């Protein structure tokens, strides 16, 4: 089982260089592998849903948008539990146990997609099971933040989240390939007939889920054998409520919702949006690119937060997302033109890149802001350095948990906004206008609170 650590002082340079750094890096990589698999599971459903009508499932376009919005919604709700349970169970032990839970959605999706007569409620149920993978960030990133000193938190969490988030693009790259072949033989089920237009061929849609089963077992065992449990923090709902009373929790929550919600929501909605706007173009070869760009740019955002300031990097990222939103809208077909798919694709890559930078820069604000706040309080109250670090770290972890939970709702809001705009107005313009205004609001908050020269928490 996991190794329990009784003493952990990452701000002590001698301890960090002699013992702490090696342990921290091992746990970081285990967390990365586990989080990556959680994102594989969380977002595989969007790749399954886009193929359901082609294999015979009778679902409407609005139902498809609803189905892809359910995993982010359930993932956000799961974070309410994941955000505190790891601090009681132990971070390393929870890495292993939460990875084993991924066997449920992988098995459930693989079974349901083989029966085209499955009722819609069963599709909603397995969509909800995929949301289990969405809870992991709330525990993984908070746990990782305690392993590293303040000067390295941004990069560490950026690597953890960025390479973990890369699971979205890996799923979108692998699933279209693996469903073309009988990877598991007859024991995994019969193929389905996939047909769209004049193209007809066999697919094994269940492979989209079954390929993750052996990986879940292997990664869970690695975490259970080699991860470490730090001294238990035992974060409680009261700690969460205390963090929610601080205005900075909500400022950071808003900023993280803007970038992380964009990543989740557009990753889920892009396949359906591309098919709806450019039905004559096969966008499947490009689906993985945006989430990959976002995941790889997140460590850059964390590094920028450590070097030039999280507030400045967050302002820049939201400006780019606002510009990209305008560019996407200009690329869409209209009564006067057929639109430009390549401009559409390029602008989405810009949004994904900026969202990745914003993910890294805004999320690392939480531990830094509350450590600064605790340090100022300690100067007035005569508190010891160890007590200050523990209290600031605890408040920062609680703020990260709140931000992680709320931001995940963006993955539900964006696909739902597109579906509702199409249903109510027959156009995606209202949804894009809402996103544009929200990014501008995030720019103002980041500038006023964390980047202008007179900001109380400039960091």
From TrEMBL:
Membrane topology field: Multi-pass membrane protein
Pfam families: MFS_1
Keyword entries, A-Z: Membrane, Transmembrane, Transmembrane helix
Localization of this protein: Membrane
Superkingdom, taxonomy of origin: Bacteria
InterPro entries noted in UniProt: MFS, MFS_trans_sf, NO3_transporter
PANTHER family assigned to the protein according to its UniProt record, in alphabetical order: HIGH-AFFINITY NITRATE TRANSPORTER 2.3 (PTHR23515)
Annotated source species: Chromobacterium piscinae
Record-stated family: Belongs to the major facilitator superfamily. Nitrate/nitrite porter (TC 2.A.1.8) family.
Transmembrane segments annotated in the record for this chain: 28-48, 54-78, 85-108, 120-141, 162-184, 204-227, 248-271, 283-301, 308-329, 341-358, 399-418, 424-448
Protein's name in the database: MFS transporter
Entry annotated with the keyword Cytoplasm: no
